[in-house]
Write a structure and sequence with these properties.
single chain, 427 residues, five-stranded parallel beta sheet
Length: 427
């Protein structure tokens, strides 16, 4: 792990590089994604199956795309009871947290006018669940449960096909979470199918969930054709640690995030150069024997940086500049710093809040903004699955009170038809 102190010439360039890590995909990626999107829009199932064979090396027919109820039922026989119990416990805690996010329709009276907002769920949502390097039943729960809590009637899951069938943990998680349709389909072609619809897959109103750079680019390009949650990139963790933090805990937390992907980015910001050096040594030691040692090693070698600063206030400012997906405060009295944190997808407070407890079992959503987008994006929530419509009701008496200023404002903007629409009620 690279260590830079404020006295180093590389400190500012290293911080700038970390802060700008979320730049959009290159032209080559975008060109490829556009080609696939256009092909699926025009060719539907035929294009979807062609790209599935090309990229996933799996030949399917349209009738093979949808997972059957029997396959879901059989998935339960391929996992242990304690594993199913763990998924159900996680689902209960995720549900409990997200039920507190519900927003209700509300109205109030302003003299004789009635004003307010009506809250309704979207009709259909598509959940993208990655495949390939790892299996993510936890992401199924995190994406589907808020939709169910919001009252979305149609919850569609897509996940890349595997030659041995879809992983049973994904199917069980989807069943527990209330997913209504599952398709063995991944990549840009899956996102396109959800957005445009095909003969086999009806289109959805919104697409959520993490994916690789191609999936993320597809979501970005389709925004407007369909809704999206956010443009998420590789996983990230930043640990702010004082000199009392335990190096072994910090190293373990950084590796917890680094094992996601070779492009995962982890950072340490600390007031102690000794701690930074100890953490670097322990990362090398703890890497040995990890199931995903090669992936985590590449992530650490490519991206891991420890920033050594003079004060905790400076550490918090560095954290705000980077705006990480996950931010751990391994300090005494972490709540004292809470109001100073302006940009982070999720905050893990104190010495005994490992990122993994939030990834799996705590309840808050782990689908979070990455690449510095925590400056303007929020975690996935029930609010992502509902729409808000404004309510306005005026009586003739109340309209009469505001008619004259209404007409004046319309005339200022040069819209006399607007003025006449109000005046016509009194002619």
């Amino acid at each position: 792990m690279k260590i830079v102190t404020q006295a180093d010439r590389s400190f500012i360039p290293s911080l700038k590089k970390a802060s700008l890590r979320g730049r959009a995909a290159g032209a080559a990626v975008e060109k490829t994604v556009r080609t696939i999107l256009q092909a699926v829009e025009r060719g539907g199932d035929k294009a979807v199956l062609r790209y599935t064979k090309q990229f996933d090396k799996v030949s399917l027919k349209p009738e093979d795309l949808r997972v059957t109820p029997e396959e879901i039922k059989n998935a339960y026989f391929h996992i242990r009871k304690d594993e199913g119990d763990a998924l159900r416990l996680a689902a209960q805690r995720i549900t409990a947290f997200h039920e507190r996010q519900r927003t209700k329709t509300w109205m109030y009276q302003d003299n004789d006018a009635t004003l307010g907002q009506v809250v309704t769920p979207v009709d259909a949502v598509g959940i993208y669940v990655p495949g390939g390097k790892a299996v993510y039943p936890s992401s199924v729960l995190m994406c589907a449960i808020p939709a169910k809590v919001a009252g979305v009637p149609r919850i569609v899951m897509v996940t890349p096909p595997q030659k041995g069938g879809i992983n049973p943990y994904l199917l069980v998680a989807a069943d527990i979470a209330g997913v209504t349709e599952i398709y063995r389909l991944g990549g840009v072609q899956a996102v396109a199918a959800l957005a445009y619809g095909t003969n086999t897959i009806a289109k959805v109103d919104k697409i959520v969930g993490p994916g690789n750079i191609y999936v993320a680019t597809a979501k970005r390009l389709l925004y407007g054709t369909t809704g999206i949650d956010m443009v998420a990139g590789p996983s990230e963790l930043l640990v702010v640690a004082d000199d009392e933090a335990k190096p072994a805990h910090v190293a373990a937390d950084l590796l917890c995030e680094a094992e996601h992907d070779e492009d995962a980015q982890v950072f340490l910001v600390t007031t102690s150069e000794r701690l930074a050096k100890d953490v670097g040594k322990l990362i090398e030691a703890q890497l040995k024997g990890l199931q995903r040692e090669k992936i985590a090693s590449k992530s650490i070698a490519r991206h891991a940086v420890a920033f050594v600063v003079g004060t905790m206030d400076e550490a918090i400012e560095v954290a705000n500049d980077i705006a990480p997906e996950h931010l751990t405060l391994s300090v005494d009295n972490p709540f004292d710093y809470l109001e100073k944190i302006r940009h982070a997808g999720a905050l893990f407070l104190g010495r005994y809040t490992p990122p993994s407890v939030a990834d799996y079992i705590a309840g808050p959503n782990h689908v979070l903004p990455t690449g510095g987008t925590a400056r303007f994006f929020s975690p996935l929530s029930v609010n992502d699955y509902v729409k808000v419509s404004n309510i306005v009701h005026y009586t003739k008496q109340e309209l009469a009170k505001v008619k004259d200023p209404l007409v004046r404002l319309a005339n200022i903007e040069g819209f006399d038809a607007h003025a006449k629409s109000a005046q016509s009620r009194f002619s």
